[in-house]
Amino acid sequence: MPKVTYRQHTDRPPPRPIRISVPGWAGDKQPRADGSHEQPWHCLPFSESARYGLELVYPFAAELRVTSVDGHVQLDADWGEPPVGEPAWPPFRPFGPDYYSYQLSLDIAVPPGFAVRTEPHPRYFTDPTHQTPLAVPALIRSEWWPMVFFAIFRAPPPGVTHVFRQGEPMMAFVVIPEDPDIELAQMDEEEAAQRELRARRMAVSRDHLAEGTRWLSDTNTIFDGTYRNLYRAARARGAPRPSDDEDPSLNGT
């Protein structure tokens, strides 16, 4: 597991592992039971992906509202006087007509062979109000780049307002291999046949694998815990992962 270190030039909250918030941006605390409405946290692949990286929260008391007016980004906030130690004020500035920048005053270091990728925070994809800011993906090779980061955000479309509120997550980071180095190939007949056989066996056994977990949502969609149960079985064969204890998708009903 790569060790990630950081340094800051301000007293802003440091990056932290992404936390699933229920009730909150990951959905309401509705059980997996007949009549419930589907929630993002019900989906284990989503919650695993959401918890994969680090998050950064908006640190300022002044609420920032971002809109697009006449084809240009508009940043509205009552910034007041700069806090002690803030090198750039205000920290948000237009970056062309459709984007704006944020001075993170943060340097994240990763081991050789790894890089830091900025991403939208997972709550961007679950926000029914469409107010969550949209961070632009970027790959930072911090092994040889010791400078503090800045981030770029995409302005919302006309009629939509992105809102930054103190304490709310605004962007995410993931640590990944710096070069994908992926060899892509179509499965040969033997591998394809083996996976097809496994898929058919799983389909035949699904009632047993999902025993006690099937439910019907209020949108008349059937769900079950087959994937979740197989995940638990796979994890049981390896080393325990403490973060699983914090995942409501695994531990919620």
Overview of this protein structure:
The chain has 253 residues and is an alpha+beta fold. It has a domain at 5-18 and 53-177: Deoxyuridine triphosphatase (dUTPase) (Deoxyuridine 5'-Triphosphate Nucleotidohydrolase, Chain A). Helices cover 17% and strands 27% of the residues. It has five helices and 15 strands. The chain has helices at 44-50, 189-204, 206-209, 226-236, 248-251, and strands at residues 5-8, 16-17, 54-57, 64-69, 72-76, 92-94, 99-109, 114-119, 134-135, 138-140, 149-154, 162-164, 169-177, 215-216, 222-223. The strands form four sheets. Strands 1, 6, 7, 9 and 11 form a five-stranded antiparallel beta sheet that branches. A five-stranded antiparallel beta sheet has the order 2-3-13-8-10, with no helix packed on it. Strand 4 and strand 5 form a beta hairpin. The protein is globular, with a radius of gyration of 22 Å. The relative contact order is 0.20.
Question: Which secondary structure elements does this structure contain, and how are they paired or packed?
Answer:
Blueprint: E1 5-8, E2 16-17, H1 44-50, E3 54-57, E4 64-69, E5 72-76, E6 92-94, E7 99-109, E8 114-119, E9 134-135, E10 138-140, E11 149-154, E12 162-164, E13 169-177, H2 189-204, H3 206-209, E14 215-216, E15 222-223, H4 226-236, H5 248-251
Antiparallel strand pairs: 1-7, 2-3, 3-13, 4-5, 4-12, 6-7, 7-11, 8-10, 8-13, 9-11, 14-15
